[in-house]
Amino acid sequence: MALYKIVPKNPYYFWSVMSLIMQSISAQDENLSKTMFLPLAERMVEKMVKEDKIEAEAEVELYYMILERLEKYKEALDVVRGKLGEKLTSELQSRENKCMAMYKKLCRWPECNALSRRLLLKNSDDWQFYITYFDSVFQLIDESWTPPPEEEHSLEGEVHYTVEQAVKFIEERITEESKSSRPLRGPYLAKLELIRRLRYRGCNDEYKLGDPEELMFQYFKKFGDKPCCFTDLKVFVDLLPSSQYTKFISQLLEVIPLSATAESEIALPADIKALQQHLCVVQLSRLLGIYHAMDKKQKLTVVRELMLRYRHGLEFGKSCLKTELQFSDYYCLLAVHLLLDLWLEGEESAVWQCLTLLEEGLSHSPSNAQFKLLLIRIYCRLGAFEPVAELYSSLDAKHIQHDTIGYLLTRYAESLGHYAAASQSCNFALRFFHSNQKDTSEYIIQAYKYGAFEKIPEFIAFRNRLNSSLHFAQVRTERMLLDLLLEANISTSLEESIKSMSLSPEEDDIPWKDLRDNRDLTVLFNWDPKDRDISEEHRKLSLEEETMWLRIRSLTLRLVSGLPTLSHTIQPKNSEKTAENGVSSKIDTIRSLLQQLEAAVDSGKKFLEQKIQYPVLGPPPTRMAGFFSNGSCQCQTSLFYLVSDIYELDTNGLEDSAEIQERIGNSFKSLVDRLTDLFNKCKGDLIEVRDGTLKTHPNLLENLVFFVETISIALWVSSYCDSVLRPFKSNLQKKKKKKKESSVAMPPVFTHFLDYVTELQTLTSNVIDHIKGLEIILTALKLEDLSLKDTLLLQEEKKFTKTVQGKVQSSYHHSVQEIGELLKKRLDTIKKLKI
């Protein structure tokens, strides 16, 4: 405002108005926002309106925004319809769209109807206005609205308020379209939409709009060669009775010009148009569940046919650039979906065929993101992460995609033992989230500069959405746990590592109440029927599971970060009960976190009792089930309880603490037993050859990764035990020297601890030997001897099969090497634990 007083130019004045709106957005109290900031902003703009000083469209937009936020919809409508509204010219139909929004808010359905009708007369292909038109017609019918006598129907002109008028209007649009030089899809789809709405209201037949099956058939004849035909019809297939599905598909196939060739027994398309039509029918067959109803033999026949059509279709794309997709790529994808069905039904070789076909597809269409995404999902399901990093990198994910599809990478990198790749993928994601802060501020500055005021709240909402991202919280937590796993007590001490991360057990920086699930769970194309597709329930359950797992991981991290804060200091007895300046002592924080961890684990176990099965291409499940079933969870919680006991021993001293010492001794014994059980669950072949087919066991790899993590926590806790017991021992030795007694009885806790450390050392050595054995087996595995039992494989497919199996073998080898290297470093740490 001070700037405006010096240089009285409108932009400076409206900057101060916008700053009031910003204060209203950031105000915690909504009442304050609506009673102080926004009314003040409104008065400031009204002053300029009265003085006729409004010059730019941005100033009108700002006035409209203020009135909308104040819920003064009538006044906002008057602004848009009045003289000021004439300035709204930068966006196509900006004025009409704003009027429509206000009519809806004010429930002025006659105006909504008349305006949408008028706009459809101008452009009968604008789908959003068909939806508004139908909404308003049925609202008027429900309200039994009739036009006022001898007056205009509404501010916007004539109103349609009966079904008959709506039917006639749509029929007129179709007649008009037939005279148009360019075919328009809108009117035909509007007719199907009207049938659907009438059916929903239970009054379709009396209006004789036609049979949906016939209308869809006619639509296919007109637009079947367009890639959008399938997505258009997908919305309306529920209008068909299930008994008519096969007949409908046969009817569509009859109109496609396919011709049989001498080399092939299958009739193939002669041009791209016919290929697109046939592709549309194949996609509809999958959507209507026709392929799902087939048995194994029929499915394999369809896969063979689809791949034959795919390879034939490559002829049409010989001139395509590397960055362009082949016309027949969807045939390959559909064949893979059928093979995935067979895999889920227990056909092990089908998954290798999936990978083979996708790798072949990718060689012809190197820019096809769907091939890459599907390969990523399948490789991860098989436990092979190595090829995934390269595939994800070639996707060239931009900006917000690091949040929406980043989960495909970060979910599996660490859990499959690729620590270096996990570190890199977390860095990738975090770099985006951190730069978002700086970038968003820059966008806001530019919006102020160019008067794009309505964009500023959007930028702020975008920034808040990213700051509250579930993926951001997960990556941050996993990255810190990973850094501790790779460095704490190896290259730097645990205390230094925690200090460098500014970690504090008391602080929880995850916005639990505002967490946003920004994952794109529909990024993979899917032609499954509704009952097999990802439902809203799946999304909800997945978010719940991800949040529970994040809570467990976050509490584990905070408990680990609390260990150095308990470092040995001589304190009076019962000092854990005292608190300084009302701040609870460090051990109280640890115990409180431990209780929260127990509660989170209980919630997680209850959740898993539901035995939820997500669709194969739906959200990937978390690592929570493995964490509970392999015993890592019990081990880690026992370790943190041990910390509490050791602290108690530290504050009570060695005298009169026989009970605590016995408890600690028992804890040591049960921990070794539990760790041994966990190791037993890691035993077995990671890759085995069964009936000429490869079978991978990714769960063994995940168990090994959990073992390394648990043994690392055990070592950090052991270091704390060491720091407590070492001063006790040196004090006892001093007493022994003073008294010159040869037999001062050593408290049992020292023996328990030394036995525990020795057993940890032996166990870790055994695991390292087991890993060496796995490496030898993986290296010796002769994949050339494998032959997939199905004779589906053609010669060109065999080379891709070899590539795929080689990638999986190499990835497992890499995982085992990285896990082995880390365990060796941990073994060196154990050897230093001598009191």
From TrEMBL:
Q: Which domain of life is it from?
A: Eukaryota
Gene3D superfamilies documented for this protein: 1.25.40.1040, Tetratricopeptide repeat domain (1.25.40.10)
Species annotation: Accipiter nisus
In the UniProt record, which is one GO cellular component term? Answer: NatB complex
- What PANTHER family does the record point to? N-ALPHA-ACETYLTRANSFERASE 25, NATB AUXILIARY SUBUNIT, N-TERMINAL ACETYLTRANSFERASE-RELATED
Q: Which family does it belong to?
A: Belongs to the MDM20/NAA25 family.
What Pfam families does the record point to?
NatB_MDM20
* Protein name as annotated: N(alpha)-acetyltransferase 25, NatB auxiliary subunit
